[in-house]
Amino acid sequence: MPAARPHIEPRLVPTADSVVVKEIYLSLQGESSHAGLLCAFIRLTGCHLRCTYCDSEFSFHGGARRKNADVIEEIKALRTPRVEITGGEPLLQPGVYPLMQSLLDEGFTVLLETSGAIDVRLVPPAVHKIVDMKTPSSGEAARNDLRNFASMNANDELKFVIGSREDYDWSKALIAEHRLAEKPFALLFSTVFEKLHPRELAEWTIEDRLSVRFQLQMHKYLWEPNARGV
């Protein structure tokens, strides 16, 4: 587990009323228990990890700083009740916390896609947190913040992206060690696209009778795997 670090109350940060946005777009939610549903996406700039299988490296740099109020108005114009904040790693930006709360206050269902390397305890409880556990093939497994297991609630989902049998065995062992199947949040298994055939993961999961939700990244089958704005 990473060493403890100080938390700064987001509202005390000068940039808490704005975020650096890479793109905003409308699409279908491609994974999680919300898969297949119409969803607006806010992709924020920046990430402190460099996963080997990253499919959004374009979000590491660039974008434009925008006031949260302006972002919310653009989301309203997309006319969908569901919005996901993703990245990069959105929790690196102090302004994302009040942005999430403001979206909730406006009546949106809010999803957050986060790397699992930052404790999510400051995220508003009503947000649906999709927390990505970094498996060994990511190259970033040492960065997982296991405090998240205590910070997640029944709204949330813990995602394992699996690229090898080693990743699968590691994930299975972690679930057993921390008794994650008994937690209130859901467990998701998916493959690294074009690295491990989904059938293999499905068969391993069935053989071991794991209490997880097997999923495909729907958007990568509908569009190009690394397409922007989908």
Automatic annotation (TrEMBL):
Annotated catalysed reactions = 6-carboxy-5,6,7,8-tetrahydropterin + H(+) = 7-carboxy-7-carbaguanine + NH4(+)
Parts forming coiled coils: none
From its record, what is one biological process in GO terms?
tRNA queuosine(34) biosynthetic process
Tell me which residues bind substrate.
Answer: L28, Q29, G30, R43, T86
Q: Which residues bind [4Fe-4S] cluster?
A: C47, C51, C54
Annotated residues that bind S-adenosyl-L-methionine are located at Y53, C54, D55, G88
Q: Which Pfam families does UniProt cross-reference here?
A: Radical_SAM
Q: What family does the database annotate?
A: Belongs to the radical SAM superfamily. 7-carboxy-7-deazaguanine synthase family.
Could you tell me what this protein does? Catalyzes the complex heterocyclic radical-mediated conversion of 6-carboxy-5,6,7,8-tetrahydropterin (CPH4) to 7-carboxy-7-deazaguanine (CDG), a step common to the biosynthetic pathways of all 7-deazapurine-containing compounds.
For this entry, the protein name equals 7-carboxy-7-deazaguanine synthase
Q: Recall the taxonomic lineage recorded for the source organism.
A: Bacteria, Pseudomonadati, Myxococcota, Myxococcia, Myxococcales
